[in-house]
Design brief:
- The chain has 112 residues and is an all-alpha fold.
- It has three helices and no strands.
Length: 112
């Protein structure tokens, strides 16, 4: 009984964390897109100084974090239903963390 409690508690954390990340990335992406799209227009006060390559990498990073949130949600639902962890979700999450790390490094290098 105790062995099923830990994955279920972790499942609840993933169910809360996943949608939070996905929604946050969608909102941030929308605001960044709006800043880029409407800069230079009358009444616009915000600017984006990134190059086209930096813009693409930034949106790729946001998209990866969005997908990470969806995978967290799926892994959490699986853990809640079964009471155990799934190695496939773990591997997928670790791969996504690696991709996020690489994209983050590229964005930081392009920001210089």
């Amino acid at each position: 009984m105790l062995e099923a409690r830990v994955p279920r508690a972790a499942g609840w954390v993933l169910v809360i964390l996943g949608p939070s990340l996905s929604i946050a990335m969608a909102v941030i992406s929308f605001y960044l897109w709006r800043t880029i799209h409407y800069q230079g227009q009358l009444g616009s006060t915000s600017r984006w100084n990134g190059s086209p390559e930096m813009t693409a990498r930034t949106f790729q990073l946001f998209g990866t974090i969005f997908v990470f949130g969806l995978v967290c949600l799926a892994a959490g639902i699986f853990q809640l239903r079964t009471g155990r962890r799934n190695v496939t979700f773990l591997v997928l999450l670790l791969v996504l963390v690696g991709v996020m790390f690489l994209l983050g490094r590229q964005v930081m290098q392009l920001a210089r």
